[in-house]
């Protein structure tokens, strides 16, 4: 029997449409092989939505996403929209869709592939075997806390304000995802905070300790975020699963990306409760290389694999995609960001083409 899924595509801006193009073809090919039918609909978000509709997240985009089984997003943002007021910026559209779908848990795996060991800026012996899962809280913390804004005092001086806040229920639900994720891995969970300075972090730490009583098989440790940034570069192999808040997770996942060679390789899954999940690369719209056929589409392709695995429960199709990615790397194909000596340099479209060839067994 054919499984059918309705997928909303949000190509967004910059390299977004280029990497989405490749990914849709990959999904269609795997779909045929695994008896899966994808019904794609494309919706506007970010700068593309601002240009067409005047807002970064049109209500019809939210409606379409809510009605679908999963959402696949590429990236948003670009120089053109950088000077718009906050509520009209592409980034506000991305935060808006995460909030509208209740996507509080963002899973960002950073795994070093043996094929790309030379693409990392770190020494081989430091990164070899790295396999980290960053569980980033995605709909709370300083990104969403109130009050926020730029206010003018009685003396006429401006003051910019954001508030880092977490409620117990927000901490508990991300902690649960993290403990359960760690249970399926090496059962080591490192909670990253700034409890030596921030009250919000103290509450975070207290709740993690309390919650750990329910997960006696998981070893819980704590680390301050500044040290975590250093340890990720010094000795990344000490980490299995990391759980942290929205802002720290944003920063640490980019750092973790570089262990693997390129942010162009890193997928992510954003999950909530009882709503469609959203799957997106960790990287942005890369405006510096947009429209030049230079983008690495693999983070997007691997995000589609995460969609199949975590969103649609189609592990076989997910594995097919992941294996095809490894195979094209084995064959020596590299986009600029992961290029190394002796490899075959390809652009975004060409990388897509060889992926399809590998999938089709040519
Ligand atoms: P970025 O991730 O877009 O780019 C950082 C660097 O990595 C650039 O040099 C870029 O060329 C490179 N890079 C990123 N993805 C790549 C890929 N697939 N292949 C090859 N190289 C790649 O981050 P930035 O420059 O800080 O931000 C650019 C815009 O993207 C901003 O508007 C930002 O707000 C937005 N952004 C969006 C998302 C998202 O949509 N999820 C994430 C991060 C940043
Ligand atoms: C990411 C991005 C976003 C974030 C921005 C573009 C809103 O950096 O997905 O990592 O900070 O979450
Ligand atoms: Mn980021």
Structural notes for this entry:
- There is one protein chain.
- The chain has two domains: 207 residues, 3-Layer(aba) Sandwich (Isopropylmalate Dehydrogenase), CATH 3.40.718; 128 residues, Isopropylmalate Dehydrogenase, CATH 3.40.718.10.
- Strand 8, helix 7 and strand 9 form a beta-alpha-beta unit.
- It contains twelve helices and 14 strands.
- With 362 residues, the protein is α/β, with parallel strands linked by helices.
- The mean pLDDT is 97.
- It is globular and about 65 Å long.
- 40% of the residues lie in helices and 22% in strands.
- The structure holds nicotinamide-adenine-dinucleotide, 3-isopropylmalic acid and manganese (II) ion (MN).
- The site of manganese (II) ion has 2 residues, from helix 9.
- The site of nicotinamide-adenine-dinucleotide has 21 residues, from helix 4.
Tell me briefly what this model is:
With 362 residues, the protein is an alpha/beta fold.
């Amino acid at each position: 029997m054919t499984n059918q899924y309705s997928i909303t595509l949000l190509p967004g801006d910059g390299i977004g449409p280029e990497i989405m193009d490749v990914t849709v073809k990959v999904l269609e090919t795997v779909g045929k092989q695994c008896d899966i039918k994808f019904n794609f609909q494309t919706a506007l978000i970010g700068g593309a939505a601002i240009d067409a509709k005047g807002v970064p997240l049109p209500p019809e985009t939210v409606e379409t996403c809510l009605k679908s089984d999963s959402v696949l997003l590429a990236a948003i943002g670009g120089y053109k929209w950088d000077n718009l007021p906050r509520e009209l910026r592409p980034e506000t559209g991305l935060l808006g869709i995460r909030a509208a779908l209740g996507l509080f848990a963002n899973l960002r795996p950073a795994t070093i592939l043996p094929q790309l060991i030379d693409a990392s800026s770190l020494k081989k012996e430091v990164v070899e075997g790295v396999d980290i899962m960053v569980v980033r809280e995605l709909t709370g913390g300083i990104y969403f806390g109130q009050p926020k804004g730029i206010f003018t005092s009685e003396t006429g001086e401006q003051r910019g304000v954001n508030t880092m806040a977490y409620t117990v229920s927000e901490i508990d639900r991300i902690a649960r995802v993290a403990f359960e994720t760690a249970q399926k891995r090496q059962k080591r969970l490192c909670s990253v905070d700034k409890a030596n300075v921030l009250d919000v972090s103290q509450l975070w730490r207290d709740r993690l300790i309390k919650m750990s009583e329910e997960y006696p098989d998981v070893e819980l440790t704590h680390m301050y975020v500044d040290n975590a940034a250093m340890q990720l570069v010094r000795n990344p192999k000490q980490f299995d699963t990391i759980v942290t808040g929205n802002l720290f997770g944003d920063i640490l996942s980019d750092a973790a990306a570089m262990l693997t060679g390129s942010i162009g390789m890193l997928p992510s899954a954003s999950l909530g409760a009882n709503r469609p999940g959203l799957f997106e690369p960790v990287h942005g719209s890369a405006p510096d290389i947009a429209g030049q056929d230079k983008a690495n589409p693999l983070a997007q392709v691997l995000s589609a694999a995460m969609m199949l695995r975590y969103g649609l429960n189609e592990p076989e199709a997910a594995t097919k995609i992941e294996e095809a990615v490894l195979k094209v790397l084995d064959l020596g194909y590299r986009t600029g960001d992961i290029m190394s000596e002796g490899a075959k340099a390809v652009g975004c479209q060409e990388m897509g083409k060889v992926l399809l060839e590998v999938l089709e067994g040519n």
